[in-house]
Amino acid sequence: MRTVVLTMKASVIEMFLVLLVTGVHSNKETAKKIKRPKFTVPQINCDVKAGKIINPEFIVKCPAGCQDPKYHVYGTDVYASYSSVCGAAVHSGVLDNSGGKILVRKVAGQSGYKGSYSNGVQSLSLPRWRESFIVLESKPKKGVTYPSALTYSSSKSPAAQAGKCSRVIESKPEFINTRCVLGDSREINILTGQAPLALAIFS
């Protein structure tokens, strides 16, 4: 009788192990069949400013050639959102001039931004700005879903004129004082000459 009981127990344990192994194998096969949607990294041009993108955190792909000085960058490490996203990425050292993927995170505006020369890009100083951003390597956080398509500001009022200079108000051999209208209708004076570019914003 005892032998029969032991045999039955062995059979039950054996059956349990078979079911367990079968279940694990089945789960693996199911996991293989379920394909996770592939994340598509949106591409932007060198002239896209962070302030035009509404998303608070995103991954983008920059093209080559964003080291060009025509793509203005304001600040060092923490950049004003009026800066070229990809230009700031090159300045920060996260990218080189050949382009690539970056992670951009919006942060609070700063009371001042200090310009510097780094990685072939001369960033500019700015007294203050309403919004900032930092550039990181494109390593997604666990559990964070990044947008495959960016949301852009659709404003076409005064903000659409951002960066367009209204007129040259003063010109001398040693410098040119240019008045520009920014997206929030504030004026910015740009003094250019032999000295580094200086900016003054008037509310």
Describe the model:
It is a single chain. The protein is α+β, with helices and mostly antiparallel strands and 203 residues long. The protein has a domain at 50-137: Ferric Hydroxamate Uptake Protein, Chain A, domain 1, CATH 2.170.130. It is built from two helices and eleven strands. It has helices spanning 2-33, 85-92, and strands spanning 57-62, 75-76, 78-80, 100-108, 117-118, 121-122, 131-137, 164-172, 175-181, 187-193, 198-202. Strands 1-4-7-3-2 form a five-stranded antiparallel β-sheet, covered by helices on one side. It has a four-stranded antiparallel β-sheet with strand order 8-9-10-11, with no helix packed on it. A two-stranded antiparallel sheet has the order 5-6. The N and C termini lie far apart (97 Å).
What are the salient characteristics of this protein?
5-stranded antiparallel sheet; Vitrin; disordered C terminus; secreted; 4-stranded antiparallel sheet; 20% helix; Ferric Hydroxamate Uptake Protein, Chain A, domain 1; repeat; 203 residues
